[in-house]
């Protein structure tokens, strides 16, 4: 029988620091909910709004796969591997922190907010060499179909690579359209996060910024009650 967890948008942790307005789907920083620590190997999903001219100063990471999806504006990234990049709408960045890196993230613009989704996934191997990858994804290629953003490093496919048997997809479903997603493994689950719109996931209605985790299934069925934009994260449920 399917196991599900429902995370309504208004149940997320919320902190407003002035320059940073942030919502946490899982325990993060000063917000701790013992029932919301992780979903399988998915550890963090933060919905961040950063004011123009502000950002996160240089800070360290290790042994985490970090994925950033920019929804509005642009985010400037610098790291100890020598990368200085701006991440724009429809771009995705992956960073394997591995044995250790430092980086900073700032709003690339002075006059508008940047809205980003940052995802942390536990790696399946510790202390790997740090790596970085970034790519533009054509929004037209996710209309009423799954667009692969991230996939395991040993797979020969179109995803940006991480050190975990995990996949991230994005889809934009038009009202009345449906899609089916087959899971890659029997010990995997899917965490669905609704960026915009309204959907039905295996019969459960989800609205903007709602999320639902589902496991012990072989597939999921999505249908759009109105035009919708959805992130789908398939992760092992070992953690």
> Using DSSP, what is the number of strands?
20
Series of secondary-structure elements, N-terminal to C-terminal? EEEEEEEEEEEEEEEEEEEE
Q: Unreliable runs, pLDDT <50, ≥5 residues?
A: none
Radius of gyration: 17 Å
Helix/sheet category: mainly beta
- Biggest sheet overview: 9 strands, mixed
What count of helical segments does DSSP give? 0
Shape: globular
Structure, described:
By secondary structure, the chain is an all-beta fold. The protein is built from no helices and 20 strands. The chain has strands at 3-7, 13-16, 20-24, 42-50, 55-61, 65-72, 74-79, 84-88, 91-96, 101-107, 114-121, 131-136, 147-152, 160-162, 167-173, 178-182, 188-201, 204-206, 211-215, 219-236. Strands 1, 13, 14, 15, 16, 17, 18, 19 and 20 form a nine-stranded mixed β-sheet that branches. Strands 2-3-4-11-6-9-12 form a seven-stranded antiparallel β-sheet, with no helix packed on it. β7 (74-79) and β8 form a beta hairpin. The protein is globular. The two termini are 20 Å apart. The mean pLDDT is 96.
Short description:
The protein is mostly beta strands and 239 residues long. It is 0% helix and 57% strand.
What does the secondary structure layout of this molecule look like, with pairings?
Layout: E1 3-7, E2 13-16, E3 20-24, E4 42-50, E5 55-61, E6 65-72, E7 74-79, E8 84-88, E9 91-96, E10 101-107, E11 114-121, E12 131-136, E13 147-152, E14 160-162, E15 167-173, E16 178-182, E17 188-201, E18 204-206, E19 211-215, E20 219-236
